[in-house]
Every structure is written in C-alpha cells, then in structure tokens.
Design a protein that fits this description.
The protein is mainly alpha-helical. Among the domains are: 82 residues, Fumarase C, Chain B, domain 1 (Orthogonal Bundle), CATH 1.10.275.10; 199 residues, Up-down Bundle (Fumarase C, Chain A, domain 2), CATH 1.20.200.10. Helices cover 63% and strands 4% of the residues. It is built from 21 helices and 6 strands. A hairpin with a 2-residue loop joins strand 1 and strand 2. Helix 5 crosses helix 6 and helix 8 runs antiparallel to helix 21. It is elongated. Bound molecules: arginine. The site of arginine has 10 residues, from helix 8.
Length: 484
C-alpha cells in the first residue's frame, strides 16, 4: 500500500532517488526509493553463490545457443555473448573478477559484467529465462559434478579398505555385541563390512543423481515462456537426461538437495561409526591398531598422549551434515508453489554438506590406507572373553547333543574356566568331559580363535578363505562401477 500523501517525500526528492538507483538493479525501474543498505546485505547471496559461477556460465551458453538456433536472438548477439562469457570465465578463474554486493547474486554479477563487455547483446541473454529456472539449473549442474567427485572419493576409500582386508584376511580379533567380546572374527572381515556400507552410499548417490539430472531451464519464472524455445536441445548440451516436465515444479523443487543431504548423512553415519571404532581400537585399553602419527596430535599438558583427533573430528562433523538435512526439510515444508526467496537458503547447507563429506572422505582414505593392526593384542583380547563358547556348543550339536543342552553344558564349562582364570581351550579334556561326555580329543581344533573363524566358511562368513574371496568380488564390483 502506498504511504499517505502527507508522509511521502516531496516529488523532487523521490525523483532524485529514483535516478540514483535506476542503474543499480535490473528491476529498480519498479521502485520509488533505493533498497535499504541492510536489506541489500540481507538479501544478497553473492558471498556464497559465486561458487556456482562456472555452471552459471555453462547454462547461459547453452541457453544463448538455443535462442540463436531458434531465431530468438541474432547470430551476432550469440557471438558477442560467447566471446563475453569466455572473458568473464577467465576473469573469475584468475581472481580478477570484481564481485559486487550491489548486483546481489552470481547471476546478476555475471550478466552485468557481460553487458559491460559486449553491450546490447548481453542484455538479450535473459530473454525467455528467469533467475528462478537459472538458479535451479545451476545448483543441479554443480551438485551433479560434486556427486561424481564424491563417488570417486568413495571408490578410493573402498580400495583402501579392500587392500587392508586382503592383507589382513587371517588376522583374528574379537567380534563384539553389546561391546562385549562375542565371537572371533577376522580383521579383514570387519573392514569389509564398511566396504558394503560405502557401496550402498554410492548406489544411493547414483540414484539421487539420476533423479537430479533433469533440466529446469525453460520454466522461466514459473509458467514457462512465450518464446518458441527448444528445451530438449539445452538439456542435451548440458548433459541432462531430459527436462523437468512441469514448470512450477521445475523452479520450486529442491528434493534433489534434500536427497543428497540424506545420502550424505548416511555416508557420514558410516564414517562416524568407523571413526568411533578407530578411537576405541587406538586407545591403550584396546591397543588393536596403530594410527599413523600424521593423523594424531599431542596434548599440551600430558606428554604421553597421542590423541586420535582426525577420527574424533569426523565423528563430530557428522552432526553438521544431519543438521543440514533437517534445515532443508524445514526450508521446504511450508513453501507454496512456486519459487520463493526462501529457496536462496538452500545453498549454504548444501555447500557445507558437500564440503564436510568430501573433507571427511579425503582424510579417511589416507587414514585407512595407513592403519597398522596389532595382531597380537587382537588375539589376546579374543582369548579373554570365552569367544569360542559358541564353537564348543556347535561341536556338541554335531555330536548329537540338542542345542539347548549343549548351551547349558558349555555355560557350566565357562564358569569353571572363569573360576580358574583360564580360557576354554586351556581346560583339560577330562574337565570338559565332566560337563559333556561327548567331547573328544578333536575339540581343541575348534576352540582356538583360528579354528573358530576357519569353520565359518560360507559366503558372508568370517573364514580367511571367505574374506579372500570377498576381496576378489569387491575388486570386481569396483571395476564394474568404474566402467559403468
Ligand atoms: N539468488 C537467488 C536464489 O538463490 C536467485 C533467484 C532469485 N529469484 C528471484 N525471483 N528473486 O534463489
């Protein structure tokens, strides 16, 4: 509503202000007074969305080529736009581009510079387009490239896990449930559990990429455009699989950003679980692994300390990414169709989710490659919790004892061993036979950690032979993904 006449500034002053701002904003023709300084800063996004610049230029080039091919702009305009955008790209890459808050965001900054460089033609670039479909296109292009980079990083981490698993396929360690020694497993088997998690992460990201890879451009502000555009051509040039089918959805949809943050959150959960295990394993109480010095820090007061800062930080940073997921869900949940300025808030969470995941993956690939297991400590811990008790019960079952009775007999044997401070495998045959007369001399083969793991010899089992086979299959899966 216009302010009452009495509150308005005199006509002369209004006109002066109007002239002063007419060139500042591409939309300032509509307004009677300049935008408040604070509001300018509050609404600008150039401080963070400038990282979309290379994709903004790619999108503009494809759009301009289509406009020329359809006769919407002249060939000579296209030439000027191509020449100008090439220069803008060089300026941005070399750091000489002058970003201005005045121009609000990455799109208007680039368009303004283009127009300064090539004149009229620059002003024709925005024909049949809006910043709404432009920004939706830019983010999709940017995120697609980041997903591809993250996929490569996940593959590198997977390779480090597979290499370690192959090297340590026969190293026994305690497997835990409730963080209590449960049954012996092999270190290689344990590491390959993470390979499976990261494989799922890659599959999920590929799925997210598939849905993301549609072109919003052509939706213009929200309703499409009156010009005879060729969206399929633009989609092809930008490597999209097709176009967004509905113009309202095209400019307002941020599902792909939310999906990405969900995928990234799960990947961070996996990294964080591995981080937690490394922190435990590297602690003197466990002493299962040695973390390379370059991943540890000392204490400024306690000279003896070697702190596992890197895994701790990855564990801590997972929270940021989960937070970004919730931020984006909340951002979207009450927006009416189509574009709203709220959407500008999609960028910082998304950018930080990408940066955090990439940094975490980069340090973890190195960390995993440099891990040194300490097999003797692992084996000793395996002997401390009667980890082969199930093996003794299974042995009795094979001798014809019903499982429940076998369980009972072994529980009694464990009690006796515990009372005398020995492992089951250290009880004499006579002692074992007192609890279960079916026990024979061959039992000791199954009561060592090595015997225990070797007998879990089926697909998905922890036997060294199975781990080696799983390593071969994992390598084949990695190779197949690389070719795909
Ligand atoms: N900087 C804006 C964003 O990130 C670009 C789109 C602006 N569109 C608009 N109608 N104000 O969302």
């Amino acid at each position: 509503m216009a302010p009452p006449a009495s509150k308005r500034p005199p006509r002369a002053r209004r006109n002066k202000k109007r002239r002063a701002t007419a060139s500042a904003k591409p939309w300032s023709g509509r307004f009677a007074e300049p935008v408040d300084e604070l509001v300018k800063r509050f609404t600008a996004s150039v401080s963070f969305d400038r990282r979309l610049a290379p994709y903004d230029i790619d999108g503009s080039l494809a759009h301009a080529r289509m406009l020329a091919a359809r006769g919407i702009i002249a060939r000579s305009d296209l030439d000027a736009i191509e020449r100008g955008l090439a220069k803008v790209r060089r300026e941005i890459e070399s750091g000489t581009f002058e970003w201005s808050l005045e121009a609000e965001d990455v799109h208007l900054n680039i368009e303004r510079r283009l127009t300064a460089l090539v004149g009229e033609a620059g002003k024709r670039l925005h024909t049949a387009r809006s910043r709404n479909d432009q920004v939706a296109t830019d983010i999709r292009l940017w995120l697609r490239a980041e997903i591809d980079a993250i996929d490569r990083q996940l593959a590198t981490l997977e390779r480090a896990l597979i290499d370690q698993a192959g090297r340590h396929a026969a190293v026994v360690m305690p497997g835990f449930t409730h963080l209590q020694v449960a049954q012996p497993v092999t270190f290689g088997h344990h590491l390959l559990a993470y390979f499976e998690m990261f494989e799922r992460d890659r599959d999920r990201l590929a799925d997210c990429r598939r849905r993301l890879n549609r072109l919003p451009l052509g939706a213009a502000a929200l309703a499409g455009t009156t010009f005879p555009i060729d969206r399929a051509r633009v989609a092809r040039e930008l490597g999209f699989d097709g176009v967004c089918e509905n113009s309202l959805d095209a400019v307002s949809d941020r599902d792909f950003a939310i999906e990405f943050c969900a995928c990234a959150s799960l990947a961070m959960v996996h990294l964080s679980r591995l981080a937690e295990e490394l922190v435990l394993w590297a602690s003197p109480r466990f002493g299962f692994v040695h973390l390379p010095d370059r991943f540890c820090t000392g204490s400024s007061i306690m000279p003896q300390k070697r702190n596992p800062d890197v895994p701790e930080l990855v564990r801590g940073k997972s929270g940021r990414v989960f937070g970004h997921l919730v931020a984006l869900l909340t951002l979207m949940k009450a927006q009416p169709l189509a574009y709203n300025k709220d959407n500008q808030e999609d960028k910082e969470p998304l950018f930080d989710a990408v940066d955090t995941l990439k940094d975490s993956l980069a340090v973890f690939a190195d960390l995993v490659a440099g891990l040194e297991p300490l097999p003797q400590a692992m084996r000793e811990a395996t002997l401390q919790g009667f980890s082969t008790a199930t093996d003794l019960a299974d042995y009795l079952v094979r001798k014809g004892v019903p499982f429940r009775d076998a369980h009972e007999a072994v529980a009694r044997a464990v009690r006796e061993a515990e009372a005398s401070g020995r492992d089951l495998s250290a009880l004499p045959l006579k002692a074992l036979q007192r609890h279960a007369p079916q026990v024979g001399r061959d039992v000791y083969r199954f009561l060592t950690p090595e015997g225990s793991v070797a007998s879990r010899n089926h697909i998905g089992g922890t036997a060294p032979a199975q781990v080696r086979a799983a390593v071969r299959r994992a390598r084949a899966r990695l190779g197949a993904k690389r070719k795909a």
